[in-house]
Design goal:
Domain ABC transmembrane type-1: 66-256
InterPro entries: MetI-like, MetI-like_sf
CATH architecture of the largest domain: Orthogonal Bundle
Keywords: Cell membrane, Membrane, Transmembrane, Transmembrane helix, Transport
Largest sheet: none
Strand content: under 5%
Number of helices: 16
Subcellular location: Cell membrane
GO biological process, one term: transmembrane transport
Number of strands: 0
């Protein structure tokens, strides 16, 4: 009983530590600049500056940035689910020469730090003429997700081959088997990958910072960075903008809370 009480106490403490930055952000978004960094800290805003949210929306083109982030994120999510599930089916069920070696090389890309590929990828995008366009965010994000392929492959491996054989006897080809047999059976994994991909694409900051220059092309995370000037930063408006920017992620979490928890659990699935 005592050990269980201690464990719950540690978990509650850990949860409070993890949620503290979010609470500080929300409270700071309701303060003026004079209240944010005072010592000792003043946790409860006095007064509540609700106008920070309106000023933040008026100071920057948030509507355009929201649209950019939303459509980029949705394209990446849909394309990732399609390409990763097709690759997972090919690696798991279609026998071809060099399949295992190719899959190992594909997984090896997960061990390469992003910083190593920044300059080569930038040069490729420059050669393609895609700099300062959303293609620099959509194409790499949609086509190269080794983790998604690995996780989905593990699920596909668990599908009985008798189902495929029955489909073949009915005259189904590879794509029909993939579409009618494989996809319906891996929906839990697809939901988890879709949610993780959405959160990663929506919160992506470093890639837009590297490739985008025009304010009309900015995404929400990159737009928030514009509140930081050369010598100072308007922290009140930045915190208000940050709270606005995380609303879609919170909505996704509330709606898909069960799938997120299941997705974290199934990342340890064995094939």
């Amino acid at each position: 009983m005592g050990s269980k009480f201690l464990l719950h106490g540690l978990l509650i403490f850990g949860a409070l530590v993890m949620v503290f930055p979010f609470i500080w952000t929300v409270l700071s978004s309701l303060k003026d600049m004079s209240q944010i960094f005072i010592i000792p800290p003043k946790w409860i805003p006095d007064p509540f500056v609700w106008n920070n949210f309106r000023s933040s929306l008026e100071a920057m083109p948030f509507a355009q940035a929201y649209f950019n982030s939303f459509y980029i994120t949705m394209i990446i999510v849909v394309a990732t689910l399609f390409t990763a599930s097709m690759a997972a089916y090919a690696f798991a069920k279609i026998k071809f020469k060099g399949a295992n070696l190719l899959f190992i090389l594909f997984l090896a890309t997960m061990m390469i730090p992003k910083q190593v590929t920044m300059i080569p990828l930038y040069l490729v995008m420059d050669w393609l003429g895609w700099l300062d366009t959303h293609l620099t965010l959509i194409v790499p994000g949609a086509l190269f997700n080794a983790f998604a392929v690995f996780l989905l492959r593990q699920f596909v491996l668990g599908i009985p081959k008798e189902l495929e054989e029955a489909a073949v006897m009915d005259g189904a080809g590879y794509f029909r088997i993939y579409w009618s047999v494989i996809l319906p059976l891996i929906r839990p994994a697809l939901a988890a990958i879709g949610i993780f991909t959405f959160m990663g694409a929506w919160n992506n900051f470093i890639d837009p910072l590297i490739y985008l220059n025009s304010p009309t092309n900015f995404t929400v995370p990159l737009l928030l960075n514009q509140f930081k000037g050369l010598y100072t930063a308007d922290w009140s408006l930045m915190m208000a903008g940050t709270v606005i920017s995380i609303v879609p992620v919170l909505i996704v979490y509330v709606i898909a809370q069960k799938q997120i928890i299941e997705g974290i659990a199934i990342t340890g699935v064995k094939g």
